[in-house]
Amino acid sequence: MATLEQALHLVQLLEAELIQRSPAITRHNDYYRGKHPLHFASDEFAKFHGDRYRDFSDNWTQVVADSPVERMTVTGFLASGQTDADRELWKVWQVNGLDADSQLGFLGSVANARSFVLVWGDPDDPDMPVVTFEDPSQCVIAYEPGSRRKRRAALKRFQDGDMDCATLFLPGEVWKFSRPRLIQNNAQSSQMTDVDEELKRWKPREIETEPNPQPNPMGVVPMVELPNKPVLVGDPISDIGGVIAMQDAINLLWAQLFTAADYASFPQRVILGADRPVIPKLNDKGEVVGTQPVDLEKFAVDRVMMFNGKDARIAEWQAANLSMYTGLIEVGVGHLAAQTRTPQHYLIGKMSNLAEGALLAAETGLVKRTEEKQTWTGQGLREMARLIALARGEDGKADAMRSGRVLWKDAESRSHAQLADALLKLKQLGFPFKWLALRYGLTPTEVADVMAMRMEELEADPVTELTRQLGGVPDGAGNVVPVSDPDDEPDEGEEAAA
Description:
By secondary structure, the chain is of the alpha+beta class. Helices cover 45% and strands 18% of the residues. The chain is built from 18 helices and 17 strands. Helix 7 (244-265) runs antiparallel to helix 9 (322-340).
């Protein structure tokens, strides 16, 4: 068991890591929400137009992050050695609202390189642990030296009213700390600074109904990391981080296009061979006492200007080629699509009359990208399922889930007709109906309901149901007529040869 000094030392180390990660997380979240500063502009352009486009962004980073998440849907958990998905684990998943919250966790991982899952037992309902997806700005995990999976400690830091709170999870116990939430003020005196430094130190947070530290009955750190694009050395990689530079370039091109269009809407003309027109200045008696230049903004509104002089003539500067900007923007979006394996029709917004096979081929990169995320996220979710079993006191199931797997809905987008045709051919090869139902995208609960309905049909009309399963239909005279496969019917040439 860790001492108070050791626990405080771990909290300080893990909080320092959280603080180090914070700028990148804030930046990625801002770009996902469309808060993009103007970058790459020349000093002159930024000086005159920077404030004008401060709140503008052509936000493609949100599409890049959302496109794989919308295809990541968990349908169940399968323990090692089992043929049926675990219904109890799925019940915990649904009671905790993880059908929806898992999407938030997957999005946090894609945008910020990682997210977390926390599992903890509920003393009021031992069979229903509390499972929550956690934001990477609040959580961090420390691993054993040389390991990417053996968790040594985890920290969750959050705010509760005017207090900063921290919970340290260790394999054997859980520590809770708090401190006043302070607002930094650079104008403080040295004495007040010393007071704030003292207040900023973590102190044990005492709760009447809970000991501190309290034992951890699971015996392992109950928090799991869900990395995005992990690497052997260094932190995992955010999908947004790699496209920020191109996003900034696209925003700048739009800003320059708007500026050029502004000037093109008011053609820039120059008057040659004439003096600037003036109007006389009169005194109280109506006598001309001088002249003053004509307000040129008046001519911009009236669209009429008169000049004296036989040599006066008007010339015009050629307007900028605006199509050049739109072409560059489209190239930039195309590069962004290629770099992130996002289908072009997700970004460009132009659809032509493409065949279904061509659209599926265009989405191959996104499907593979999603399946990669399912692989890495699935490892974390499998460990989450193990923690759920440990929280329920089911050590055997927890051990089986170490080598179990997570069931996902198919990442490839297909029409119902195409999917049904593929499943029918698999059925003819001998695949069982339950496997086909899972492949279709049903959850284990829905599969169980469908299987019950099939049994009801069999009990109500066993002859018709059995003949249908055998691939035929009764002809009304007690005979079974095989159902022909449309793909096996001979074409016109074969009929003629026969």
